[in-house]
Amino acid sequence: MKQDRALLGILAMIALLIIVSLTLFFTRGGNQEYVTDDTPEGVVRNYVLALHKEDYERAYGYLQDEDGKPSFSEFRAEFVESTSNIKNTGLQIDSTEQTGDDATVRLTIIRGGTEPFERAWNESNDAWLTLQKGGWKITYFPHPYWGWDWYTE
């Protein structure tokens, strides 16, 4: 009889832990908000967040207006066709170097494993921005947040 109560107590604790874990998993970090985009870091953050939220018009607005810029339909198609790459990728902004009208934002791209036993891995890379018409615009961003043939000659 005492063993039954102990077993029921253990099962109740396990059930409680499962419920708390699932609640935390589904409620954490799901409500990301845009920040002001008057700095290179703000533009990078908002660009990536817009892509994750599938707000392609907003993300497209952060691209530099120069030769080689994809059309909006080409831009959107790049991400609609490869959504899984974006969904399994995170980004950390490490530092920024600004020289006049140009800025380099150092990033750590966190790529999640797509298989059950595949581990996540990190990659360091840079995003390049330029000041254009009073706002920061992206001239280069690492894959999977960028098309391979954008702005190439």
Which key features would you list for this structure?
153 residues; alpha+beta; 5 helices; elongated
Protein model, in words:
There is one protein chain. Helix content is about 40%, strand content about 25%. With about 150 residues, the chain is α+β, with helices and mostly antiparallel strands. It has a 4-stranded antiparallel sheet. The longest helix is centred in the N-terminal third of the chain and has 26 residues, at about 1-25. The termini are far apart. The relative contact order is 0.15. The mean pLDDT is about 85.
Provide a quick synopsis of the model:
The protein has helices at 2-27, 40-52, 56-60, 72-80, 83-87, and strands spanning 89-99, 102-111, 121-132, 135-140.
